[in-house]
Request: fold
Amino acid sequence: MSEKIETDTRHILMDTFCLLNSERPVSKITVSQLAQKAGYDRTTFYQYFLDMEDIQCAVEEEFTDYIKSLRSEAALEDDSFIQTLVSAYEEKPLYFNALFGKYGDLDYLYHLTEAFQFDLPELHLADEDKQKGYLIEFHVTIAISLFRHWLQSDKDLPIDELMGLIRKLYTSGIDGALEK
Reply:
């Protein structure tokens, strides 16, 4: 089997996992259901993954790597992390919906924030600032949590309005966001 076909099959299985996981929790997805929906049989699934937990980890790792690549390419503006999330949503909506939607695993949020023991230059924090870790944690988890809420609320706000709300919360707090 060629490497391209193997990569395509692996990604088809992962995309199908994301599609199913956006509709129901992982515990309610079987290997047979996933393989059949992807157009394969169980044996094909097991050529690429050990079990459902393994495919979930593969999806999470790939998405985390994708976010990291977006961050490394980002022009660091005041809201570049927010823009990174928007870009991730626009480019990989299946993954985004599965990982942050109604049936997404909250542990992934913690995994993602741990994976991003990165600096957020847009926050303009000095390395010696003792509050730096707290502020980065706040910035990342609030943005991701609000995106999760947006997905779970059937995207009831236009994306630009959501980004504006997040910016207001960052800069002015809840009182500033309540001002019209």
